[in-house]
Amino acid sequence: MGDGSITPRFGNMRALLGIVAGAGASYGLYKLISGGSFKKNKKSAPGVRSRESSEVPLPAGSLLARVSGLDVVCPRPVDVASGDSIQQSSGNLDPQHLKMLLSCLVTSSNPPDRCRILLTLGNSAAFTVNQNLIREFEGIHIIAGFLSDPLAEVRVQTLNALNNLCMNIQNQEQIKVYVPQVLELIEMSPVDSDLQLAALRLLTNLSVTDKHQHWLKKSITLLLSLLVVSKEALQIQASKVLVNLSSNPDMMDDIVQAQAPASVVLLFDSRTATAVLLRLLTFAGNLKAWRPSVQVADELRRTQDCLFRVMLDESSQLHSRLVLLLSHPDVEIQSQVARILT
Questions:
Q1: Of 48, 95, 96, 323, which is most buried with the most CB atoms under 10 A?
Q2: How far apart are CA 273 and CA 234, in angstroms?
């Protein structure tokens, strides 16, 4: 396998590549606004552990539930110069081919080729052995370098590859440092675009455990804003991240003081998609389980537009809207609402 360094190897590069498509329209989202500071309440009651936090199992070798689902296109272990390629399991991809793909990615000046290389690397990263090899070959940093690529399709495939690589605990240690850049991509990208969805999927995987959630402290306002301006697919993904974060009592102080659009409570409505509403109710349940001191609650009430005032204060519309949801036709929604109210 050699010393693990990346040595450029050419020949017919297309023997290594898959197929990809991309998308997007234009959109702007207001900048993150930091919430007011207040004394931390270290005696906060533990939040309700969310179902979302258990959706992605993290033990090594069992993280395939979050793979991209894209077709895998890999080289067979034959002469690359022949131009012959087949579709097969990425588990059979040899270390030399991963090295070759990373070398081609570094040297390629052709955007479509970069997309195909990233797609193939991302698919190969659905397997633990390849996740480890890509990390050992310094591939995570090579791949993450394309988060700033000028072409949206390349950025989407970069995020997809990092998403699969993120299903490895050791890889998360390297990927976490790119969270600020990923948040910036979400903020500046077209709403409901493939790029936003790919970025949120990456943040969902990174926030499954408590270990790296502090990197997302400044994302709360952005996530809440996306909830009120996006369609169902993106609402689901944003709410997954919020549920993961709110499942950690140590994150609650940052969550409740984050600036939030007042219209977020309007989503607690029978017209909201059931899949979205179930996650929002889990998020609300986690918030309701938090018990601030009187002093902290008073300070939060003086913080304009913070999430505490929007969803938890006595003046919030949330309680009355939850009562209306007791008659929702979905039994699980009824059950969640009753649990929150009691």
A1: 48
A2: 12
Average pLDDT over residues 312-331: 95
As a whole number of angstroms, the distance between CA 277 and CA 289 comes to: 18
Distance CA 292, CA 312 (A): 11
Q: Which pLDDT belongs to residue 91?
A: 52
Burial of 200 (0-12, 13-18, 19+ CB in 10 A): buried
- pTM for the model stands at 0.75
One-letter amino acid at 267 equals: L
- In this structure, what token pair is assigned to residue 135? 């990390």
